[in-house]
Amino acid sequence: MTAPTKLPHSSSLPSAAQADQAGAPAAEELHLPVIAWFDAHARDLPWRRPEAGAWGVMVSEFMLQQTPVSRVLPVYEQWLARWPRPADLANESPGEAVRAWGRLGYPRRALRLHGAAVAITERHGGDVPTDHAQLLALPGIGEYTAAAVASFAYGQRHAVLDTNVRRVFARAVTGVQYPPNATTAAERRLARALLPEDERTAARWAAASMELGALVCTAKNEDCHRCPIAAQCAWRLAGKPEHDGPPRRGQTYAGTDRQVRGKLLAVLREAHAPVPQATLDRVWHEPVQRARALDGLVADGLVEPLPGGLYRLPLS
Fold this sequence. Notes:
Blueprint: H1 16-19, H2 27-41, H3 53-64, H4 69-82, H5 86-90, H6 94-101, H7 108-123, H8 132-136, H9 143-154, H10 163-174, H11 185-194, H12 199-215, H13 234-237, H14 257-270, E1 275-276, H15 277-281, H16 287-299, E2 304-306, E3 310-312
Helix pairs in contact: 2-12, 3-4, 3-9, 6-7, 10-12, 14-16
């Protein structure tokens, strides 16, 4: 377990007025208890260890998008054992990245991570850049991932807004059960206002608020008795009003094109030679949906068509 974080004096932290949230708890009322809770309860995850380095942090951030930790852990370990540096992955074909991605889902993330590894190797001498703008310029790196790598790998001060953090802020500060379906400008302003001024503390706050959302302030069955800021939580103090915004998006899978794409990719991942169309035809009974899914995989660069009705994972 990491040593407890020593916080700077509260006068250096943003106030409730700065957060522009009437009736919300002051930022300094949130930082200390949440970070202290994290010091005591943070999970020992491989990408949080010093030896993971910036590349390990980046790999974990790609894999953890919309995927639970339990599914990521074995793939992450295998990935880092095979490709301990960006240049190691860059030297392989994109198809090998897709193959190693296995059943994590959303396999375009594998292509994007491969593209980022190539860019890191070509532009930055094989080292994940420390500069936030350079991180954001890498292919496949968006606002969240750039902030997460800069914060978690390099201890910088950035607002790191994933689903868990957004839910914690929505409840504790804004007083609503769930955040909007898509990140809003108001959420970004609030996240920046809540950031401690001290860089090291800000990075710790980013990790701590994320862990709180993952373990305690969950989407369902939140455990307020374990929450270090339950006494200040605007949503709890308001009586936990039910969500009255737009319906929350569900995660349907069975019978969707995503499922068909997954079945087609599974065949290609297991094969080490081009696969004939007839073999792919056997994975799904409905020909129109199957053809649409295969066309989508080709369009996304996940599958490469060859003459003679053959298909393989991409080589370039």
